[in-house]
Amino acid sequence: MSELKCPYRKKCGGCQLQNLPYNRQLSFKQVKAIKLLGKYCHVDEIIGMKNPYHYRNKVQAAFCEKGGEILSGVYQSTTKSIVPVDSCLIEDPIADEIILTVRKLLKSFKLRPFNSQTNKGFLRHILVKRSSKTNQTMVVLVTAVKEFKPASKFINALLSRHPEITTVVQNINTKYNGLMLGDETSVLYGDGYIEDILCGYKFKISPKAFYQINPTQTEVLYGKALEFAELSGKERLLDAYCGTGTIGIIASKMAKSVAGVELNPDSVKDALTNAEINCVKNIEFYEADAGDFMVEAAAMGEKFDVVIMDPPRAGASLEFLRCLVKLSPEKIVYISCNPETQSRDVSFLTRKGYKVKKIQPVDMFPHTEHIEVITYLTKII
Ligand code: SAH
Fold first, then answer.
1. Residue 1: pLDDT above 70?
2. Residues 108, 48 contacting (CB under 8 angstroms)
3. Best mutation site among 210, 268, 274 for ligand 1, i.e. most ligand atoms within 8 A of its Cβ?
């Protein structure tokens, strides 16, 4: 694969490692993983991508007006300005084209980007989610106001240029509080969600639910996690921080039963639907803080043979880890997008009766500095 050069690299800042050839990026991440986790066990070679471009299935852009022209691109919180970006080397190219079309349509429909200084305007952001496996595409227009008079004409114009769009959603975010999406969502066209296929299972993706952004590497990541878990069909499995239930559902036919716990209500709703559409009967989901769930599970004497955990960047809470040790599963498969907090948590587990058997980094975010690592631990008898 020849290296591609991004025209926005100096201004955008999204791809911190793009000045390095891809194989050097992988070495950089390998060294970092060894530095943080190598004290526990040998670190297997990071699994990179054959084609490390255009992998992002979720693309977002902010809009602004400059000299009468509408610009779209990446919002930078440090300078509070937008770096105009028309096409990005790591994003899905169709999603990028849709964003350009929306930008052109705004002008022809006399809709204006929201201006936080004047508190006037319509469109704050756009979010496009795509599945290249099903070719379904969702467009989420994040607006500052509810009123969208030309909605049906706007959507017709958008669909005529991009027939791959299967659903259009308006999300209303009147008071910006740092989160891109507001509370109110209305479906303007289609079902309000798209579907993707991972490891042979179908998954629903809603506007607000978490979904892995690199589907090729997600299959690699999940494959490795389940290879380590080595399920025999007899186990009770916990999928902690389960998002839309992907790992648990994929693991379900290799386990006796599965429980999933997740904080985000939209993700839990999708997880329940996902179990249904894949006809998975031996799985249940709990909408809860994973730490609280573990406290209750430990108090009730629940038994899990295997725990797969995939917390956000902050890692697991001490409460979660304490109860995990109490629940005493034979195997823990810890997937992390932040090896620093993972190292902290693994240190706790290794002091409380667990041993690290395998460490496998997977490159989920080529060209960026982000590292994903699976650490596999077993109980010392
Ligand atoms: N395993 C899933 C999701 C991983 S991302 C997948 O592969 O798709 C981490 C998930 O943890 C997100 O869905 C997030 O909503 C959830 N989360 C964050 N804090 C949590 C908490 N305290 N308790 C439970 N889930 C939490």
1. no
2. no
3. 210
- Residue 108 has a pLDDT of 94
Q: From the CB of 210, is ligand 1 less than 6 Å away?
A: yes
Lowest mean pLDDT among 74-78, 112-116, 252-256, 268-272: 74-78
Cβ burial, residue 78 (10 Å; 0-12/13-18/19+): exposed
User: Which residues have a Cβ under 8 Å from the Cβ of 230 and sit 6 or more positions away?
Assistant: 331
**Distance in Å, CA 338 to ligand 1 centroid:** 13
Mutation choice for ligand 1 from 239, 241, 249, 342, CB with most ligand atoms inside 8 A: 241
pLDDT (mean) for 316-344: 98
312 lines ligand 1 (CB under 6 A): yes
Provide the pLDDT for residue 168: 98
136: which 2 tokens? 């379904």
Give me the active site residues, please.
Answer: 337
Q: Is residue 187 a contact partner of residue 138, using CB atoms and an 8 Å limit?
A: no
For residue 302, the number of C-alpha atoms closer than 13 Å in the C-beta half-sphere is: 23
Ramachandran class of 338: left when φ > 0, alpha when ψ lies in -120 to 50, beta otherwise: beta
Average of per-residue pLDDT values in the chain: 95
CA distance 240 to 292: 12
